[in-house]
Amino acid sequence: MTRSSQAQFDAHAEKYAASAVHRFGPSLPVLLKVADLKPDDLVLDVATGTGNTALVVAPHVAHATGIDVSPKMLDQARLRAAQEGVTNVSFQAGSAEQLPFADGSFTLVTSRHAPHHFRDVPAFLQEVHRVLRPGGRFVLADQITPRAELQDWVDFWQRTRDPSHARQRTVDEWRALTAAAGFRPAGEQIVPYRLEFGWWTQQSGCSADVVEALQAHARNADAAVREAMQLEFDAQGQIQAHHDPMLVARWDR
Ligand SMILES: C[S@@+](CC[C@H](N)C(=O)[O-])C[C@H]1O[C@@H](n2cnc3c(N)ncnc32)[C@H](O)[C@@H]1O
């Protein structure tokens, strides 16, 4: 089953806004460091969701714009901006694959925990390249598949839990995709995430049937998957947690 990101995230926007893992998760400070924020930066945060990245970036730059396909996620972002008194940020609806901005509008583009939902990553990267000024930076933070041979297991795992999941990539795929879009590498690092199974399934609104399908998928994982995804089981063989490595990387235009 697949589901649009708009439907999935509209349905779970309030829960997402309250999630400490998404709001304060360890990829964010690394992303901020790698981005090397400057006071005159004009920033675009693609798939901003509830504004977790845009709202932390904004106080350090001239202006931040957040774009997302989910109006309910954007409502939460605007609410948080008002509560926190952040005034140099704006949020608008739009798609990563068709950015509604003129060429060269931004000096920095960020996208965190989102491109694994995008249906057309090459189109997204072309758009990022187009809206960046020459010398501009693109900073990505996204979950990756540790090794290519685990791709099918990982995408089934993720899509069963969240039907708006499209595909998560290996580091090598990101290197090739960004090179094809005309970017130059400017540093990368892996940030580990440990995700509790109960929290993880509740966050996406999984039914009891979906939870059981995930338990079965975990039980059937071979030794290579168990090791690479660091699957943790209790004494009854029920999955307790898995690990999702996040790639935080910068490419320059
Ligand atoms: C897991 S959330 C990440 C939100 C935020 N970047 C963060 O760090 O918390 C993924 C977001 O991607 C958005 N999204 C998915 N596909 C999109 C697309 N093609 N264009 C724009 N936004 C998209 C969803 O609506 C959702 O808000």
UniProtKB/TrEMBL annotation:
<dbReference type="GO" id="GO:0032259">
    <property type="term" value="P:methylation"/>
</dbReference>
<dbReference type="InterPro" id="IPR029063">
    <property type="entry name" value="SAM-dependent_MTases_sf"/>
</dbReference>
<dbReference type="Pfam" id="PF08241">
    <property type="entry name" value="Methyltransf_11"/>
</dbReference>
<protein>
    <submittedName>
        <fullName>Class I SAM-dependent methyltransferase</fullName>
        <ecNumber>2.1.1.-</ecNumber>
    </submittedName>
</protein>
<dbReference type="InterPro" id="IPR051052">
    <property type="entry name" value="Diverse_substrate_MTase"/>
</dbReference>
<feature type="domain" description="Methyltransferase type 11">
    <location>
        <begin position="44"/>
        <end position="140"/>
    </location>
</feature>
<keyword id="KW-0808">Transferase</keyword>
<dbReference type="GO" id="GO:0008168">
    <property type="term" value="F:methyltransferase activity"/>
</dbReference>
<keyword id="KW-0489">Methyltransferase</keyword>
<dbReference type="InterPro" id="IPR013216">
    <property type="entry name" value="Methyltransf_11"/>
</dbReference>
